[in-house]
Amino acid sequence: MNQWSFVTAAYVIAIGGTTATTLWAYIAMRRAERDGPKDSGR
Fold first, then answer.
1. Angle at 14 between CA 32 and CA 24, to 5 degrees
2. Reported pTM
3. Which of 9, 17, 28, 29 has its CA 20 to 30 A from that of 1?
């Protein structure tokens, strides 16, 4: 095995993790916007 296998794997893990975190944050943001403010109408 050469080093490029590890480099490619590292890129796949990094891009996958970044994508998953971005999607998680986007879904949480949309859910928070949908649910509205939690205070007493201020």
1. 10
2. 0.71
3. 17
